[in-house]
């Protein structure tokens, strides 16, 4: 038997409950993991509230990110053995797997050995955010040294990952945040500049930073009306990545900006990378290299206990964090 956290109806954090379940032996191409830490992310909140891209099938498991030790392996699994320290890349659907448990099965293609220097808490905080940011900035966007990238919601775990990845390739990460409250934290996190969008003229500030050229890329989980200003701050042939919908209102697009600067506006999801084996392997290589070399460092905001999962979700919904929320077992 294993304790797992599931929900039997959509709703607030209070719908999360601990259930005792029998965990089957790992099937073909599965790895069974004794979980030591879980990373909490926005997709899990959306799934719990019925606002995600798939509908929950009750009782519903959830959990994309985990780190722990291999307990057993299924047939056809190579490269892993019981006792290995591993972490899980979100490369599956909640309809198939969920990692909120003490003992869980995960698909082998989503499991990776993490660098020995990482703790389990750090490893659980690494893969969702770094793969998400890598996919847009590097795999699809081809961000180069000297180019500016605008990072909205920059204090989120993915925003901080984007800052680090931009620095890793010699680009210029410009953090966009609503107020100045998190300015110093973002500078300490590696942002080349921080713009408080409710307090400053965002377009003017970006043009000053880029010597009138504009930013080559924008990476945005928010959306909403302010996207119009973000597009005005892009350079010729700029690319805008929308990877979330914290503000679900339609985004306004100036036809003259679109035509005049030959802009590309693109929806983007992590699964574009994790469901393509070649892209996923490139992501694993890039991120492992960055983790091993110290250019990429998981930023942990706060750690909760397994029995405090509902409180961890409430904290996620408060938007007070700077970095990753982790649940340690």
TrEMBL record:
Residues 11-327 form the Enoyl reductase (ER) domain. Pfam families: ADH_N, ADH_zinc_N. SMART domains: PKS_ER. InterPro entries: ADH-like_C, ADH-like_N, ER, GroES-like_sf, NAD(P)-bd_dom_sf. Keywords: NADP, Oxidoreductase. PANTHER family: QUINONE OXIDOREDUCTASE PIG3-RELATED (PTHR48106), ZINC-CONTAINING ALCOHOL DEHYDROGENASE (PTHR48106:SF5). This is Zinc-dependent alcohol dehydrogenase family protein.
């Amino acid at each position: 038997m294993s304790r797992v956290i599931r929900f039997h109806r959509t709703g607030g954090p209070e719908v999360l409950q601990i259930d005792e379940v029998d965990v089957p032996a790992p099937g073909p191409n599965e790895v069974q993991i004794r979980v030591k830490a879980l990373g909490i992310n926005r997709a899990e909140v959306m799934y719990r509230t019925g606002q995600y891209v798939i509908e929950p099938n009750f009782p519903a498991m959830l959990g994309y990110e985990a780190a722990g030790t291999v307990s057993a392996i299924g047939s056809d699994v190579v490269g892993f053995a019981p006792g290995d320290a591993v972490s899980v890349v979100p490369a599956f659907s909640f309809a198939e797997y969920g990692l909120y448990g003490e003992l869980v099965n995960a698909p082998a293609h989503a499991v990776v050995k993490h660098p020995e220097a990482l703790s389990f808490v750090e490893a659980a905080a690494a893969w969702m955010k770094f793969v998400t940011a890598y996919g847009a900035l590097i795999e699809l966007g081809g961000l180069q040294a000297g180019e500016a990238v605008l990072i909205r919601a920059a204090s989120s775990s993915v925003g901080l990952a984007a800052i680090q990845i931009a620095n890793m390739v010699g680009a210029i990460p410009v953090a966009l945040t609503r107020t100045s409250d998190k300015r110093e934290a973002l500078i300490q996190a590696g942002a080349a500049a921080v713009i408080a969008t409710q307090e400053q003229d965002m377009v003017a500030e970006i043009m000053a930073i880029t010597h009138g050229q504009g930013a080559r890329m924008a990476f945005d989980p928010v959306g909403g009306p302010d996207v119009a200003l973000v597009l005005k701050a892009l350079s010729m042939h700029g690319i805008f990545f929308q990877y979330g919908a914290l503000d679900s209102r339609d985004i306004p697009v100036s036809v003259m900006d679109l035509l005049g600067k030959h802009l590309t506006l693109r929806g983007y999801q992590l699964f574009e990378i994790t469901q393509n084996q070649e892209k996923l392997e490139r992501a694993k290589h890039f991120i492992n290299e960055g983790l091993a070399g110290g250019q990429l460092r998981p930023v942990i905001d706060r750690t909760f206990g397994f029995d405090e999962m509902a409180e961890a979700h409430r904290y996620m919904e408060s938007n007070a964090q700077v970095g990753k929320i982790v649940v340690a077992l």
